[in-house]
Specification:
69% helix, 15 helices
Length: 283
């Protein structure tokens, strides 16, 4: 029987509430700022109550109607670029990692483990080490300011390959033998057995990789110079040009709120699968 300690329970709830407030208060300030005018925001102190320009500010952000000195690229277009980039990166990473893990586990060829460790060692290389040569290759191939340039260099994942390999190693050999006796070839075994068994892992990795792709900043900063190819995270930085008076902070804050919505929706809609994919051991 669990012993009930009211004081400990009260303190625990208090700590949780304080933690939520610490996280939620900046988000609330961002939302409030997105509903006010630029003049109201720069006044001290800024009102903590929502303003009356909610619709105007968000429409201005989506259409790129800001009047500041910085970038006024339409946020609607930037969110489309971010969505396509995040989906291609997430789906590409999962597809490539599934196939590479399948090959490493179920195909016995020379230097199999050498190839696996060569993939795994890339985890130890920071992005900054690889970003110069990668940019040179992308530039030589004419992939600057394209979706291919934004996504192709990022769709390989050693982490996902390692995770799928570890899961495939837990699949009973009897299942492999049964599939072979039934006449299933390698790709049919992969498609009809391994992929369905990996559903929860795929869902968990999709959430992680979608957020990773959505939040990309450094790489798009290098490979995009055309405003029409700005992802939304990079677009927020481009909308800030200098001093407070030179920026439409209400539009910037509206853009920040809009940028939070898609990854938040993905996490909320796939929360059950995400948690199950991380903790489920009965596969």
């Amino acid at each position: 029987m669990v012993e009930r300690r009211p004081l400990v329970t009260a303190i625990s709830h208090l700590v949780l509430v304080l933690g939520v407030l610490v996280i939620a208060f900046p988000l609330y300030i961002t939302f409030v700022a997105s509903t006010q005018t630029a003049q109201d925001i720069v006044q001290a102190p800024m009102s903590l109550l929502p303003g009356s320009h909610f619709v105007d500010n968000y429409l201005a952000a989506l259409r790129g109607n800001g009047g500041g000195a910085a970038s006024t690229a339409p946020v609607g277009r930037m969110m489309t670029v971010s969505l396509i980039t995040a989906l291609v990166i997430a789906i590409g990473k999962i597809a490539i990692s599934l196939l590479s893990a399948f090959a490493i586990v179920y195909f016995h060829f020379r230097f199999r483990m050498v190839f696996f460790w060569a993939i795994f060692v890339t985890l130890m290389l920071p992005v900054e080490v690889r970003i110069g040569p990668t940019y040179q290759v992308v530039s030589d191939l004419g992939m600057l300011n394209t979706y291919a340039g934004l996504t192709v260099p990022l769709i390989a994942s050693a982490t996902a390959t390692f995770l799928f390999r570890q899961f495939f190693l837990t699949v009973p050999d009897e299942l492999v033998e049964a599939a072979r006796i039934d006449g299933a070839g390698p790709m049919r075994f992969f498609k009809d057995i391994l992929v369905p068994l990996s559903t929860t892992s795929i869902a968990a990795l999709f959430v992680i990789q979608f957020i990773y792709g959505w939040n990309q900043y450094l790489w798009p900063l290098l490979v995009t110079t055309d405003e029409s190819m700005y992802p939304v995270v990079m677009g927020i930085k481009r909308m800030i040009s200098g001093g407070d008076a030179a920026n439409d902070w209400n539009i910037v804050m509206a853009t920040a709120i809009l940028a939070m919505i898609p990854p938040a929706l993905v996490v909320m809609l796939m929360q059950k699968w995400f948690v199950k994919g991380l903790v489920d051991t009965e596969k």
